[in-house]
Amino acid sequence: MTETVNVSGAPATRPSTDPRGGLFKVVALAHEVLAGIRPDQYDEVTPCPDYSVRDMANHLVSVLRRVAVLGAGGSFMSVPHFAEDIADGDWAEAWAVSVKEFDAVWSDPAVLGRQIGLPWGPVPGVVASVIYTNEFVLHVWDLAKATGQNPTWDPEMLAAPLANMHRAVPAEPRGGQVPFGPVVEVHEDAPAIDRLVGWYGRRP
Asked: To 10 degrees, the CA torsion angle through 142, 18, 63, 167?
């Protein structure tokens, strides 16, 4: 999954007036997971089959940088898809540096009403917050799964992505312009993170 996909642009329900709590929590969790990657895991394949652990770590850092730039009114295309300036193993350190800029932008409540320029068109910051919470959750899960980590998924991280997943990416079609596999069915009583990743074609 990449954050450039149009299908993730329309939450099914009106976001809460301030959904940033989940975004901040998953950004903090990402740092823990990045710090837990071992050198022997860099070339392992993640549940996103085109991404190794190295690729996904570089992409995650790039997404964090991009979210900070977008929140400040900058251009989506000004940040590359992968943060290729980071040496292997330095992802957690790079994340900590980028979090400072992210926090400076997204801690300001004014960002919620700001128009965020995504590739398919501008959305309010309150909507972008939900989109990127979902993006981070899925890719942090990808990394954790590939590296044998079992992080704790705070319910606040998952609430908005779960509420919006059916509209954001319908069950059909999948493939092509919708870069997700078929829905993986999980029990209705399964943990929230399993239900979320299953909807996006991951096998919990």
From this structure: 60
